[in-house]
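Preliminary data (for renewal application), nicotinamide-adenine-dinucleotide complex.
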Amino acid sequence: MSRNNVKVAVTGAAGQIGYSLLFRLASGEVFGANTKISLHLLEITPALPALEGVVMELNDCAFPLLENVVVTDNPETAFDGINWALLVGSKPRGAGMERGDLIRENGPIFVGQGRALNKAASDARVVVVGNPANTNCLIAMNNSDLPNNRFGALTRLDQNRAYAQLAQKAHVPVSAVSNVTIWGNHSATQYPDAENAKINGQPAMEVITDQDWLRGEFITTVQKRGAAIIKARGKSSAASAANATLDHVMSFESKTPEGHWFSVAVPSDGSYGIEEGLIFSFPVTSDGAGGYAIVQGLTWSDFAREKVSLTEEELKNEKSVVADLLK
Ligand code: NAD
Ligand code: LMR
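Predicted structure:
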């Protein structure tokens, strides 16, 4: 999609992921060298002084494309007229927690922000990064009048992790890997699908002959990568999460090449028998003009079917835990 200017809201802009996102957005690498960018930065009131420091640094980069920066603690001001909303602001989990443990703490944030998204441009697209991302997205979508097909939650980081694991195992560059899908929830139940993946155009399950690894360690490594990073760094992933968020935006802004797809959690339309309305990660293609489609016709083994039903069950359960936050 080519534009003269774009307005992007980033919530939690003074946080870790924000610090990795904003400079790359302002540099022009996401929307291109001909698109001026306005950043609308939302924080909670006590974090506004820290955010002012980040804005000083943005100014000090003298980015030619950065037209305007709005700093606010009011979601309606932040979302006024925006084309993209990157909903990052929320609490990260600590060691020993699952992402779903944040649900009652972070979920309410997305009620008010969902309502405030009514101020966004009619073609605005929303990506929820804050955890638990799928169910927070469900809450925002249910509280907003924007069409449901404008909402998504980030599973691109999981997809990127899966690409990296398959490439390392097959001793090939990441660029040789394609058609990996993340199904379901951005949680430890997600199903990273190697059965439909390819390496140098060949089935990944044939190129990698270690079937135990493909059905065991590969899946658990991707499922638990967030926790492994928290254990190692003492903080949750930030640069890779920001990178995946920008990959997500760029995938929607451009037409997906023939035969390829990317993973994103979108409202289920019943494809693959998944309960309608759940924010479920599917393989998706973009037409580059604001529309997307869930890729149809991929097949699952019994093993895959069992994994997918576990992640669907988890999402149904998360939905029931936040029933009072859904309109
Ligand atoms: P962080 O604590 O460094 O920053 C979060 C920021 O959000 C803070 O500055 C905080 O003040 C702000 N915030 C809190 N409530 C807010 C609200 N109501 N409105 C606006 N801002 C608000 O955390 P982080 O490392 O940047 O992570 C942010 C979120 O992203 C966490 O929930 C984390 O678990 C999640 N995350 C998701 C993925 C993914 O792949 N989906 C990957 C990494 C992290
Ligand atoms: C991640 O996948 O790195 C994030 O969701 C952070 C987390 O809590 O795992």
